[in-house]
């Protein structure tokens, strides 16, 4: 694998997809991360989501606990309630030092046959729901465009997998990281080293910093805020679909800035019933087929208190 020292920039604008796909291949075949510029998303939508996040996290704990995360993974995830125990990247024993609000796809009702389906839980906060819904809709449009570019970048010839995103699995996570003491233990993380489990992550962050990406040689490269960009990275499912051509790179967050940090990742993934496997055009398959929902269940049950299997 090729060593890297910085995160590449990919400009969208109105360039032809074939040109963007070439840049995408160069970036995601080596770093797995990129700054996406000229993406066309209204900055007012991004500002509104940060404002909504700050107002939510400032609520009293009781108000946040009224929308505590449910079994369909929607709502408030308090600090010290998730641990990346499945991580093969670090010996993780301590829970992540962050709290978050999770919005997923809005379904009218939970369908017992569809893992993680259901309506969102909304706090009683003026303007919160419309801000998140407008942002999520814009991220779905951008996610779809980037998925199509990613398939081209991986030289996938049959693009019928895009229909798995007609009813996508989406996760908008409003994260709040309190400052960690400068002297905190080396294995205490805002977010422990991990790879993202889906297809594409589109992240906006404030200017506090703390996100780092691991290079093949084991160095950690800072990913600071760059105005007007999304940090976009490839997750495990797109890594498998591309038969390893696009990389799902380990990353972590340590907030030793002394300030509170806010970030808003949006995860753009296929429907849970999608079979994930190396797609035509990518050579001899290096991965076994797997149903996305089965994979997710394993990850969520291992990491989150709210998902531990109920004992009967
Ligand atoms: O907060 C960040 O900058 C990154 C968060 C992250 O990696 C995640 O939620 O998967
Ligand atoms: Fe991540």
Write up what this structure looks like:
The protein has 312 residues and is an alpha+beta fold. It has one domain: Jelly Rolls, CATH 2.60.120.330. The chain has six helices and 14 strands. Strands 1-2-10-7-12-5-4-3 form an eight-stranded mixed sheet. A four-stranded antiparallel sheet has the order 6-11-8-9, with no helix packed on it. Strand 1, helix 1 and strand 2 form a beta-alpha-beta unit. Helix 1 crosses helix 4 and helix 2 packs across helix 4. Bound molecules: 2-oxoglutaric acid (AKG) and fe (ii) ion. Fe (ii) ion (FE2) binds next to loops. One of its GO terms (biological process) is ethylene biosynthetic process. Pathway: Alkene biosynthesis; ethylene biosynthesis via 2-oxoglutarate. GO terms for molecular function: 2-oxoglutarate oxygenase/decarboxylase (ethylene-forming) activity; metal ion binding. It comes from Phaeobacter gallaeciensis.
């Amino acid at each position: 694998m090729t060593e890297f020292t910085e995160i590449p920039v990919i400009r969208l604008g109105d360039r032809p997809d074939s040109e963007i796909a070439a840049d995408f291949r160069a970036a995601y075949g080596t770093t797995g991360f990129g700054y996406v510029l000229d993406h066309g998303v209204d900055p007012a939508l991004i500002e509104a989501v940060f404002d909504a996040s700050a107002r939510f996290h400032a609520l009293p704990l009781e108000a946040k606990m009224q929308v505590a995360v449910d079994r369909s993974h929607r709502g408030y995830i308090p600090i010290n309630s998730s641990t990346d125990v499945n991580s093969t990247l670090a010996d993780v024993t301590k829970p992540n030092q962050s709290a978050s609000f999770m919005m997923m796809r809005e379904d009218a009702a939970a369908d017992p046959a569809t893992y993680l389906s259901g309506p969102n839980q909304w706090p009683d906060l003026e303007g919160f729901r419309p801000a998140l819904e407008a942002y999520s809709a814009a991220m779905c449009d951008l996610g779809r465009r980037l998925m199509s570019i990613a398939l081209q970048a991986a030289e996938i010839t049959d693009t019928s997998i895009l229909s798995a995103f007609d009813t996508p699995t989406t996760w908008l996570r409003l994260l709040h990281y309190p400052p960690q003491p400068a002297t905190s233990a080396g294995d205490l993380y805002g977010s422990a080293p991990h790879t993202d489990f889906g297809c594409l992550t589109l992240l906006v962050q404030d200017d506090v910093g703390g996100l780092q990406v691991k290079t093949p040689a084991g160095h950690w490269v800072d990913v600071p805020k760059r105005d007007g960009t999304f940090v976009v990275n490839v997750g495990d499912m797109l890594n498998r679909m591309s038969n390893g051509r696009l990389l799902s790179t380990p990353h972590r967050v340590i907030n030793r800035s002394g300030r509170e940090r806010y970030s808003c990742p949006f995860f753009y993934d296929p429907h849970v019933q999608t079979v994930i496997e190396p797609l035509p055009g990518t050579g001899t398959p290096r991965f076994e087929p797997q149903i996305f929902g089965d994979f997710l269940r394993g990850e969520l049950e291992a990491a989150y208190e709210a998902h531990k299997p109920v004992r009967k």
